[in-house]
Specification:
It contains 3 helices and 16 strands. The chain has 217 residues and is α+β, with helices and mostly antiparallel strands. The chain folds into 2 domains: 54 residues; 151 residues, Glucose Permease (Domain IIA). The radius of gyration is 19 Å and the shape is elongated. The mean pLDDT is 90.
Length: 217
């Protein structure tokens, strides 16, 4: 695993803040029985933040036909919806919620060419709320496979997420399993698939980015 290149500053800030607080504690608070558990807590916090922003090395399972998970998380919704915006048609939708303990690096779900990419500013409602899909800050990316099928996925900010990173640019070729960005803190990925997609997961299932196949198209 490696640390995501977009999070060096965040992780450094966490380390510096934690070090400053620990220094103040041991310099001006004489009670060791207060300082020790707090110090251990900050060490754990630094370790967690380092892990949280890591990019795992995994063997890709997706391709131009199989849609792999963009991120780790839990499937919270599967159903038919009408997709506004770019698609303007009915689709099969899958939503995967990421909590604080999931790695938040994101990966291309299919192999193909980016046909659409757009960032939308917005609110920061809790990501598991249904209306968060439309009202929260998000980044939409559509990928057209070599056979002409389109898969759109939405990186959705949550109540604590304050930055979405996506490398998508219209016309760029992408490969399933390569990193496409990262979302910081609790968030969600919404997938919009063709109606004839064969869904291979169920609600409540835990999935892994890169290695879990959500559907076949």
């Amino acid at each position: 695993m490696r640390l995501d290149k977009n999070t060096y500053g965040t992780v450094l800030a966490v380390y510096l803040f934690s070090a400053a607080v620990v220094f103040v504690l041991w310099r001006w608070v004489p009670q060791w029985w207060i300082n020790l558990p707090l110090t251990l807590g900050f060490i754990w916090f630094c370790a967690w933040q380092t892990y949280f922003h890591m990019v795992p090395d995994r063997v890709p399972a997706g391709d131009g036909h199989r849609v792999s998970a963009v991120s780790d998380g839990k499937v919270v919704f599967i159903g038919k919806v009408y997709a506004d915006g770019y698609l303007q048609r009915e689709c099969m939708m899958i939503s995967v919620y990421m909590d604080f303990w999931d790695l938040h690096a994101n990966f291309w779900p299919v192999t193909g060419t980016v046909s659409y990419a757009e960032y939308f500013p917005g609110k920061h409602l809790l990501a598991f709320k249904p209306k968060a899909s439309e009202e929260n800050e998000h980044f939409c990316t559509a990928i057209r496979t070599p056979e002409g099928k389109e898969v759109l996925f939405k990186q959705l900010a949550g109540g604590f997420a304050r930055r979405i990173v996506c490398y998508a640019k219209e016309g760029m070729p992408v490969k399933a399993g390569d990193q496409c960005g990262i979302i910081k803190f609790g968030s969600r990925i919404d997938y919009y698939l063709p109606l004839d997609a064969k869904i291979l997961v169920k609600e409540g299932e835990l999935v892994k980015g890169v290695t879990s196949i959500l559907a076949e198209i």
